Amino acid sequence: MKISMYQASVPTFILMLNNLSAILEKAAAHAEVKKIDPAVLINSRLYPDMYPLSRQVQIATDNAKGCVARLAGLDPPKYEDNEATFSELIARIRKTTDYLAGFRPEQIDGSEEKTVVLKFRDSSRTFVGMPYLLNYVLPNIYFHIVTAYGILRHNGVEIGKNDFLGKA
Amino acid sequence: MKISMYQASVPTFILMLNNLSAILEKAAAHAEVKKIDPAVLINSRLYPDMYPLSRQVQIATDNAKGCVARLAGLDPPKYEDNEATFSELIARIRKTTDYLAGFRPEQIDGSEEKTVVLKFRDSSRTFVGMPYLLNYVLPNIYFHIVTAYGILRHNGVEIGKNDFLGKA
Fold it and tell me: Closest by alpha carbon to B154, among A34, A138, A155?
């Protein structure tokens, strides 16, 4: 049967983003109970030149919506990147998972050899569909979700690997 | 064409483990230049009840060899989990990638619906091949590799996301 491009992208992205959302809910509750300003967690980083929690969430969602749009031959929706509270970050994740859930498998399937061009400010990078998904998008999404998890864990939020894995 | 179970597992595991190995090489070099006892980095954690760097590397490799062995219907090789230096951790990764590289695609392909049983000390968990790979093994491997990265980054080792992604 093999794994379709849809199976390897949309359901996994939605699962992992929902898990991230539940982790942020726990972080918000932790801040409230411990009387911590939520902005302290949202702006926290593992090192001064790393991105803060908010940006990790933004980039994880950008990778998910960008990948699915590009594999389907569409332009990814642009978000303003102005989330500053837990509820705004959770709303961004929800907006992203709603967008992902709107794709039908036939829009994504068959994109294994599709040419995908990523445009950056001063450059562009060209990928082939399958390695773009397996070796660029998935590691990137996991990188930013696990880093978000690590930032919160490092700050004492009581979460565990099962929150990250969800009900797989 | 679709993605085979082999394509979604072995080459990705080898790529990410090689990247982790290169990151550990940079960490070892950093410790030498900065005159830091390497054991400080190897035993570092992001929070007191999280695993240290060494255990993150051990679990990442365990997930990779365990997955490929189980999908092929073999018993995973057992390692002693006694690595205490950067060179020992790097050797463990090398031993794992050598093991992975010994599998032929036909040993892994077709395992999408294979029943996989994970045995823990007091329990077991049963998976179906494809979700086992996509939603259990891959997130677990990324979780431990990114956490290893985060521990080193938090300790000032000069690495960036491109070290994690490698030459994808």
Answer: A155
